[in-house]
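hey
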């Protein structure tokens, strides 16, 4: 192995561009304060969210390890059963007071009381609490992504901004969402002086060639794979939105009456989600960020899914009804849409697991929490929330388990958040309505 001295964080640089490098064996220090410190990769937190709950009869798991049995909603995650923590019975007491989408979502990651009557007040979410401390070590303290636009209206005396945001920087400030893949990509890699039309990868190629001369053969392969993945994302961003199939709300015009912007939101929702996932993975892979949230859709969502063939209406896609209304059934099309969201989580897990960081993978070094603000949309029931955690938290989290807190006292979801923060060495003592972490986690 080639021995070199590198700075605390090593970048490839070009005009107006800086790209943090992935974990490389030739660089014994990555994200550490001193050369004598451990070179183990840091723990990451990713929270993904899908609105309107799930098929109530098919959200379950039982057993342990590779033999764990999964309900039909979770079958896309079968390859990751040994790193899956299924948690039943946790809830937010404050979220039960409004019994409407907004009041159930606005405190998803905080458990805080929700204001109504035109006032916007929730609580700082635990991802942003981590970003204020743990996130200081990175260029981007937290990456907050979404695939459906924010809804500014009011529903039953609660602002729909609550339905549109899970990450809150303060009790009165939902963290701004990034919906555009190009802008999310730029935030990770471009600086203010970067030329508008300059490829990030082209800008750093000269620096990359210099770096290759002094690293091991396996690191050269890892560096090439990383640069290839950046090029692929850039290429896909360039073509995003060129298809004309709109999968959210339906416009009043059949065709646009203005020229389409060059950098838009992809109209294929599956491509949009995968692009955001790939950008998120690049953020983790390069240690540009360690905290990320990805809101796949809103609660009370207006998304449609023409990309998914309808079982209930043969010959059609599942675009005959918006996601929110579809959630008020437990039919086969609703189950298929549930599985579609789990397929995105599985895609994210697989991408993380394909990246090696020393003796562990990036998934092994991540806690990936997926949640929704109710169990089933038909009943708005949030006395137990659908919660799963994937990954290993750097060896601190044991998967392949199903935990059931139904009927137990002290089953606040915020106790799970305290447990997760503890694994990232952030220990506020109390959070939301919780005063102690979950011992089993």
């Amino acid at each position: 192995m080639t021995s070199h001295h590198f700075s605390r964080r090593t970048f490839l640089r070009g005009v107006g561009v800086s790209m943090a490098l992935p974990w490389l064996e030739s660089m014994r220090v990555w994200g550490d304060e001193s050369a004598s410190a451990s070179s183990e990769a840091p723990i990451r937190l990713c929270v993904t969210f899908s609105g309107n709950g799930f098929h109530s009869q098919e959200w379950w798991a039982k057993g342990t390890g590779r033999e764990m049995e999964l309900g039909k909603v979770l079958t896309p995650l079968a390859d990751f059963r040994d790193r899956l923590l299924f948690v039943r019975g946790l809830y937010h007491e404050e979220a039960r007071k409004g019994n409407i989408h907004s009041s159930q979502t606005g405190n998803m990651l905080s458990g805080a009381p929700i204001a109504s009557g035109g006032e916007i007040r929730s609580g700082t979410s635990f991802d942003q609490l981590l970003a204020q401390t743990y996130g200081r070590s990175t260029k981007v303290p937290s990456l907050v992504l979404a695939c459906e636009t924010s809804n500014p209206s009011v529903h039953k005396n609660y602002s729909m901004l609550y339905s549109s945001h899970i990450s809150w920087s303060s009790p009165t400030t939902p963290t701004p969402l990034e919906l555009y893949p190009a802008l999310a990509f730029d935030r990770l890699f471009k600086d203010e002086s970067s030329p508008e039309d300059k490829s990030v990868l082209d800008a750093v190629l000269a620096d990359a060639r210099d770096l290759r001369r002094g690293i091991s053969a396996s690191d050269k392969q890892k560096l090439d794979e990383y640069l290839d993945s950046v090029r692929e994302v850039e290429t896909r961003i360039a073509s995003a939105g060129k298809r004309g199939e709109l999968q959210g709300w339906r416009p009043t015009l059949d065709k646009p009456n203005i020229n389409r912007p060059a950098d838009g939101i992809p109209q294929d929702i599956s491509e949009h989600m995968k692009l955001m996932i790939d950008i998120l993975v690049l953020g983790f892979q390069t240690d540009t960020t360690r905290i990320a949230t990805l809101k796949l859709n809103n609660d009370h969502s207006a998304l449609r899914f023409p990309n998914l063939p309808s079982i209930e209406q043969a010959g059609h896609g599942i675009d005959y009804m918006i996601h929110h209304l579809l959630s008020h059934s437990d039919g086969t099309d609703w189950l298929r849409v549930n599985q579609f969201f789990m397929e995105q989580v599985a895609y994210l897990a697989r991408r993380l697991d394909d990246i090696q960081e020393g003796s562990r993978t990036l998934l092994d070094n991540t806690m990936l929490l997926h949640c929704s603000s109710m169990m089933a949309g038909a009943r708005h029931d949030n006395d137990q929330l659908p919660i799963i955690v994937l990954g290993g938290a750097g060896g601190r989290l044991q998967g392949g388990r199903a935990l059931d807190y139904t009927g137990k006292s002290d089953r606040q979801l915020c106790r799970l958040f305290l447990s997760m923060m503890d694994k990232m060495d952030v220990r506020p003592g109390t959070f939301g309505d919780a005063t102690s972490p979950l011992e089993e986690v």
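The first strand starts at residue 11 and ends at 14. The chain has one domain: 41-423.
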